[in-house]
Amino acid sequence: MPYAKLWSKMPLTTVLSLLITAGSSLVAAAAAELVERQSGNNPFSGQFCDYTSFQASVVGSRLLMFGGNLTINKGTNSKEKRELEPGFQFFSLFLNETFQATANASSYLRREQDPAPDKRIASMRDGGAFSYNGDVFFYGGQQLFNAGDDDTIYKCTPTSQNIVWNSASINGNVRRTITKGASVNAPSEDKGFYFGGQDIIPKGADNEQADRVLNDTFLNSLVVLSFSPGGQEFTNITTPISRTKPLAKSNLLFVPAGKAGILVNLGGDDGNGDGAWEDLQVFDIGSSTWFNQRTQGNLTSGRSRNPGPGTCSVIASDGDNHFIYVYGGSNRAPGQSQLAILTIPAFQWFTITNQDYPSKVDAQCQLAGERQMLILGGRSSNGRGDCGRNSFLEILDISSLDIVASFPNNNPFTPPPLVRTASNSSNPLDGWTDPELQGLYEIQYQTSAQRNRGSKSEKGPIIGGVVGGVAGVIILGVIAVFFLMKNHRKKSARAVKEAVAEVKRNSAAQPFLGQPSPGFPSPAFTSGEYPQQYPQQYQQGYPPTTQPYKDDYIVEAPANPAPVELPPASPAVRPAELQS
């Protein structure tokens, strides 16, 4: 019997039941395939090719990687190679586990479940990720679908069981429509920073339309995210081009120097193929001031005079010396230097050429422990035909400068011999481009928590010392007055007796003019000068000829109010005269 006749003779309820059963089977099979792809042995639906334009952030012992472009190899047919993995990308790498970094990413990489559709979580390229108090905030970036409002960003909270998604509001003179900027997290300051990038036009109501990047725009604004238990605050600091070159895809690093930390911005692209390499852009967080600093050293390798855009970087510190490791770049070809090291405060570049260093562009770098630089994702600069030979993860030992496979390494960081001579310098080899930066750099850095504890702990001793000192002076004064009065009374009694006798002798009584009683002056408090914490020019303001740029949005804090004066001492009461 033909199938059409068979279907026509079936009751309607039976047909619907069969259709529902078949549909359910298809959905279940698709769901099972998705779960197997996400939580099974292989986190990808094919062989890994590259992963770019994503964001990475560490929360506790978990490294999260979010958004971006994932390309895979699904077969030997050239038409099946390097397909863009559709949809939402979210991976975890657990830093409290021991593993070997091999080409098989499934041995250490976990694919997280897609969030619920009602959360409206966007699939995102670029942007910045900032962690605070167990949450990860994702700011900026090009959203591919399910974009939020202009004043809304997304955040997630990883737990031991799952990952909870939510949204957060933007305030201040800040918008989300910015991408390809440089981001850095400063946990010791409870802040995050996002520099430069490019404008984007938010997409319309069509969910198939992505945000459009305005490629002819390059920005030099600095977005500051200040976190607190009560929420987050956003500030937009715009700087004249004379201080900061507008850049996209640069590297922003937090240096633990100065009163509240310093940001160093380097690399990137200004639209003409140039970035910040010879002249760096330095931001002092405490004064919200931009500076420039010239570097020394040769970054040329092969035909490229610098690594170009598409680099990633980490920073390691050894006392007052800091070392910025910059990896990869679109200008570097295989066999050229993939690693450059900048020493601070010498501000000297070193390049390292090692044939074992794989060429990487648009990777993400994270420092694990003190000496292991995780180089995540990226694509090879060998070309687009090497799919499958580009490892998802490379581990660089920043002390030995070797590519290693074993993770973790809990040994402390020691500067490599190549840069130790430069680390002995306490000043840039070419001097300070902005002399004011020297004074800021020489201030011993303390974390925000240390500064807050110091201010609270210092108020008690200062106030107690003042009050105790005044009280001590008063007590000593009272004791001194008591003995003076006692001595004076004895002398007065003897004088009266002698005067009476003299009157009797002379038969002419003379009036007794007693001596004025000693006064009771208020105890004098001479305030000693506090030790100078900053150089003199920073106490009295910048010299007129070198006045740094001050942003219009930054409101100067009012001067500290004068301490309330202690109440005057109660007037002393003259003790009763002793009986003679």
From TrEMBL:
The organism's place on the tree of life at top rank: Eukaryota
InterPro entries registered for this protein in UniProt: Gal_Oxase/kelch_b-propeller (IPR011043), Kelch-typ_b-propeller (IPR015915)
Record field: compositional bias (Pro residues): 560-570
Comp. bias regions, Low complexity: 530-548
Signal peptide: 1-32
Keyword terms, alphabetized: Membrane, Signal, Transmembrane, Transmembrane helix
Residue ranges crossing the lipid bilayer per the database entry: 462-484
Name of the protein this chain belongs to: Uncharacterized protein
Organism, as annotated: Orbilia blumenaviensis
